[in-house]
């Protein structure tokens, strides 16, 4: 009789997408040679958007909605693609995305309204999402899961070790709250290196570029068949470094460049008493393009403040459009338009951003050159971070054998082109953009808990 499988899992809780790995069994995502598999989270999808939609009308729930965990009073909600679709379809409620971004900030212990005066702590939102993942994994594996490896970025918070430690502590507290008793962490780019290593036939140095929604993380790892069998890999990890710039920042800058100018961003007010026109105040546009700050714009005092600023605008149409966005709470939809435009031009194409939800016929275009201009500062900082990582490892770019791309934002050609140009002698290898980290975390969990 075979021994029972170890009761462990590995969770890649990402800013934009999440995945979970469990011990191998027949089914989608099976990887018997590794001892782990990824769990289907929505139909056959092995990854799921990190999104929650709280429905405010218990009698009119979107498809897939169900009462939530007791930690947030059983509020009905749905997750992932269903959450995003519920928002798009116009159901009454609150869409939460990029929850990982609140870890390490003052928001984590604050309460946010999800409708009809009901409030939920941001950390409880994270907890509810992790509980949903655990339930999916337990249903797929047929056993209670008490042990978990959680992925984490190299830095939750740049240049602040106290807040970074607080972010990991908050994520650990959420994991304990959903029932995990044995919790370990692994850096996400190192997990991706473990996934890459499955296909290595010789020893080499790889620079893992894990660029997702919230962070751009890099690790230089020594990999190879003789290293893969070892549990303790500390001496193979030559350097890890990261920066808090990634996909959601790209979306924000594209929105500021191509959408918000139609609402007055960068415009000037009227000339008063012969004085030169002053720029329109810009804070509202930055808040409207940052996922976790958008709802602050809808607070009554803020709305009243913005309504009283009509005289600041030289073009009344700008103020009119801004107020429609604020009154009808269209901020998240506009960030979604920016994200969709980014994806459309990712491989060098062009697209038209339809803004008819603000005003009939309103639109603006985006092509590769405009995207490059909007994102060049971000791309330069990410590339510099990659070069710094190799320097910290005591290597020169020419000593790298491979440059391994993973994370959703590595689908952006202008970004990967810049990184390849910085390491011209390293062969570029593309992993599963959304699942490589989860697979690597599962490999590490198998070595840690099943050995």
Structure description:
- The protein is of the alpha+beta class and 451 residues long.
- Among the domains are: 202-247 and 376-431, Nucleotidyltransferase, domain 5, CATH 3.30.420.40; 248-373, no CATH class.
- 36% of the residues lie in helices and 22% in strands.
- It is built from 13 helices and 20 strands.
- It has helices at residues 80-88, 122-141, 161-177, 188-197, 225-228, 247-258, 283-288, 300-307, 316-327, 331-344, 368-392, 413-422, 436-449; strands at 8-13, 17-23, 30-31, 36-38, 48-49, 51-55, 66-67, 76-79, 93-97, 111-115, 118-121, 147-152, 182-187, 204-211, 216-223, 237-243, 350-354, 363-367, 402-406, 427-430.
- The strands form five sheets. Strands 1, 2, 3, 4, 5, 12 and 13 form a seven-stranded mixed beta sheet that branches.
- Helix 6 crosses helix 10 and helix 6 packs antiparallel against helix 11.
- The longest helix has 25 residues, at 368-392.
- It is globular, with a radius of gyration of 23 Å.
- It starts with 7 loop residues before the first strand and ends with a helix.
């Amino acid at each position: 009789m075979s021994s029972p499988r170890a009761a462990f899992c590995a969770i890649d809780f990402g800013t934009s997408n999440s995945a979970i790995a469990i011990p191998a069994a027949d089914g989608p995502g099976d990887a018997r040679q590794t001892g782990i598999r990824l769990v289907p989270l929505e139909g056959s999808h092995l990854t799921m958007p990190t999104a929650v939609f709280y429905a405010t009308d218990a009698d009119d729930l979107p498809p897939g909605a169900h009462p939530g965990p007791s930690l947030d009073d059983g509020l009905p909600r749905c997750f992932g693609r269903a959450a995003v679709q519920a928002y798009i379809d116009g159901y009454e409620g609150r869409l939460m995305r990029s929850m990982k971004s609140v870890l390490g900030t003052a928001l984590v212990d604050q309460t946010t309204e999800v409708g009809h005066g009901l409030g939920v702590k941001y950390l409880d939102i994270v907890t509810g999402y992790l509980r949903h993942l655990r339930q999916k994994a337990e249903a797929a594996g047929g056993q209670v899961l008490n042990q978990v490896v959680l992925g984490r970025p190299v830095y939750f918070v740049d240049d602040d070790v106290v807040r970074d430690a607080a972010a990991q502590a908050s994520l650990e507290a959420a994991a304990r709250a959903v029932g995990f008793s044995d919790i370990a962490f692994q850096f996400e780019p190192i997990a991706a290196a473990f996934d890459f290593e499955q296909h290595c036939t010789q020893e080499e140095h790889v620079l893992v570029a894990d660029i997702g929604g919230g962070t751009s993380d890099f690790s230089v790892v020594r990999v190879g068949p003789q290293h893969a069998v070892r549990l303790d890999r500390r001496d193979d990890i030559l350097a890890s470094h990261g920066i808090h710039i990634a996909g959601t920042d790209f979306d924000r800058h594209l929105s500021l460049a191509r959408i918000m100018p139609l609402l007055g961003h960068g415009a000037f007010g009227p000339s008063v008493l012969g004085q030169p026109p002053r720029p329109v105040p810009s804070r509202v546009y930055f808040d409207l393009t940052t996922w976790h700050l958008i709802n602050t714009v809808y607070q009554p005092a803020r709305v009243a403040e913005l309504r009283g600023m009509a005289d600041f605008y030289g073009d009344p149409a700008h103020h009119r459009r801004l107020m429609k966005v604020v009154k009808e709470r269209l901020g998240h939809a506009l960030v979604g338009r920016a994200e969709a435009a980014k994806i459309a031009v990712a491989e060098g194409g062009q697209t038209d951003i339809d803004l008819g939800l603000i005003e009939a016929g309103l639109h603006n275009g985006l092509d590769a050159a405009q995207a490059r201009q909007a994102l060049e500062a971000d791309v330069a900082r990410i590339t510099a971070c990659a070069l710094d990582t190799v320097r910290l490892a005591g290597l020169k770019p020419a000593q790298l054998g491979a440059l391994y791309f993973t994370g959703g934002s590595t689908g952006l050609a202008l970004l990967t082109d810049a990184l390849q140009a910085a390491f011209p002698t390293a062969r570029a290898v593309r992993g599963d953009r959304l699942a490589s980290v989860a697979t690597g975390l599962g490999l590490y969990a198998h070595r840690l808990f099943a050995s």
